[in-house]
Amino acid sequence: MEEKLRIGRALEKLGVDVIEAGFPVASPGDFEGVKRLSQELRGLQVAALARANKKDIDTAWEAIKDGANPRIHTFIATSDIHLRAKLRKSREEVLEIARDAVKYASKYTSNIEFSAEDASRSDLDYLCKVFEAVIDAGATTINFPDTVGYAIPWDFARMIKYVVENTPNIHKAVLSVHCHNDLGLATANVLSAIANGARQVECTVNGIGERAGNTAMEEVVMAIRTRHDLLPYYTNINTKHITATSRLVSQLTGMPVQPNKAIVGANAFAHESGIHQDGVLKDRQTYEIMNPEDVGLESGELVLGKHSGRHAIKAKLEELGYELKSEEIDKVFEKFKAQCDKKKEVFPEDLAAIVAEEIWRIPDKFSLSYLHVAGGSGIRPTATVAIKIDGVEYATAEMGTGPIDAAFRAVSSLTKTKSRLLRFQVSSITGGTDALGEVSIRLEEDGYIVTGQGADPDIITASVKAYLNALNRVERMKANPNSGQKRAVI
Ligand SMILES: CC(=O)SCCNC(=O)CCNC(=O)[C@H](O)C(C)(C)COP(=O)(O)OP(=O)(O)OC[C@H]1O[C@@H](n2cnc3c(N)ncnc32)[C@H](O)[C@@H]1OP(=O)(O)O
Ligand SMILES: CC(C)C(=O)C(=O)O
């Protein structure tokens, strides 16, 4: 309930006009969720879904009646396949059911939406008759769903135009569309519908929804905003909240957003190829059609990877605060490319480490002498660690919640550091149970953010090596106060 409410509040802040909060008859939980949203969200309309029958409509109204501007959304299928196989009713019967449902809902409110489920596979003349009947009965929003994502943009445009031209009272209602993404065409279909008279778009954040999902809200909004020359319409969406809302929805639904998803994917504003990076550095508009700031991102990102060129590396080094000579940049670039062959993405901290190790050439302060770990079920994990600090060996033992925690506590005690671990990742370099484990960590120590890597057949040893590697990098940063390396802003 609380999560639903958090998403509801985020949508209100985003500026959506209507939230379809749920299907109250579906379960007591859905009923309570819709009711709570209706009571708490006053700045928008909260709609409740109902099949075309009295019980669903009564329950929907009961859930939303306290809302600021409640909407009943009732629906029934109009395609022959749904009539024959699912509803087992004739066209005439379904037309009567639809009309009666809307008339029944009108005893509660004048804010009524009617959807003709599977409209895109329905006979258009029959569909127009149904729409005409429900508008006469009191529907103020008429929804044309492409329920199974079957439509093709120019044919969807033809269908919308047909409905507009052949439903005599269509001007009394707002025409809406609701597209699914089974063929990856939901956004395209919606845009073609808008261009032909649709004025409400039913969509979801991140495109989540049944099967391949629904039309992604952020795609429609940004298409209208970016191509205003061809789409002279507007939405009330405050686009600066798009990224935050997308992340919230992803987090609360547990549905990750694919990295290359338009607008909200992690890579949507990231440039990795050297030629693109060079262009973006010279003028962002060479490869950016939208401002990342407009969707709430700080700025577009240059991703350091194997496709990056010298221009991008030089720019990133400057951004990090390094003032290097041309031959030093060449050296960093060479090492950087070698690292890229080993890992997909190289972080700015890795670049900083290359500078520290290749240009400054300061020896490691800390090195592992030995590590002994006792663990298993029924005993408290204990690690005994000895490390050399500037050549002198020190040892201690610590307990922890697990063997890695115990070993890290021992390292922290010996090195007198209090690092904050930001990321810990274990992967196997080779296959099988004898695989070499590679640990990559990212930590913050004394205001510096660094990465560290360690490899060993024993993952606890690999973890301690990675930890010490990161701490050595911090020491190099500290030893070069004039290097220009910026301390991290935490
Ligand atoms: C197109 C859409 O996406 S609509 C939204 C889909 N969302 C959901 O389905 C929400 C979750 N659903 C549920 O919890 C349940 O399906 C309920 C509570 C809605 C209904 O449960 P039940 O009464 O057990 O019926 P069940 O789901 O098994 O079957 C659906 C029945 O509704 C009928 N029906 C389907 N759509 C409609 C409609 N729009 N209007 C009237 N009746 C309909 C079907 O013909 C079937 O009737 P039958 O029992 O006479 O054969
Ligand atoms: C209820 C309607 C709008 C629906 O969800 C669909 O047809 O996909």
Automatic annotation (TrEMBL):
Catalytic activity: 3-methyl-2-oxobutanoate + acetyl-CoA + H2O = (2S)-2-isopropylmalate + CoA + H(+)
Cellular component aspect of the GO annotation: cytoplasm
Source superkingdom: Bacteria
Pfam families, per database record: HCS_D2, HMGL-like, LeuA_dimer
Gene Ontology molecular-function annotations: 2-isopropylmalate synthase activity; acetyl-CoA C-acetyltransferase activity; metal ion binding
Keyword presence, Amino-acid biosynthesis: yes
GO process terms (BP): L-leucine biosynthetic process
InterPro entries noted in UniProt: 2-IPM_HCS-like, 2-isopropylmalate_synth_dimer, AIPM/Hcit_synth_CS, Aldolase_TIM, LeuA/HCS_post-cat, LeuA_allosteric_dom_sf, LeuA_bact_synth, PYR_CT
Keywords carried by this UniProt record: Amino-acid biosynthesis, Branched-chain amino acid biosynthesis, Cytoplasm, Leucine biosynthesis, Manganese, Metal-binding, Transferase
Pathway(s) annotated for this protein in UniProt: Amino-acid biosynthesis; L-leucine biosynthesis; L-leucine from 3-methyl-2-oxobutanoate: step 1/4
UniProt region (Regulatory domain), positions on chain: 367-490
Domain Pyruvate carboxyltransferase: from-to ranges: 1-243
PANTHER family tied to this protein: 2-ISOPROPYLMALATE SYNTHASE 1, CHLOROPLASTIC-RELATED, HOMOCITRATE SYNTHASE-RELATED
NCBIfam families per UniProt: leuA_bact, PRK00915.1-3
Binding partners and assembly: Homodimer.
Chain's role: Catalyzes the condensation of the acetyl group of acetyl-CoA with 3-methyl-2-oxobutanoate (2-ketoisovalerate) to form 3-carboxy-3-hydroxy-4-methylpentanoate (2-isopropylmalate).
Name of the molecule in the record: 2-isopropylmalate synthase
Organism expressing this protein natively: Dissulfuribacter thermophilus
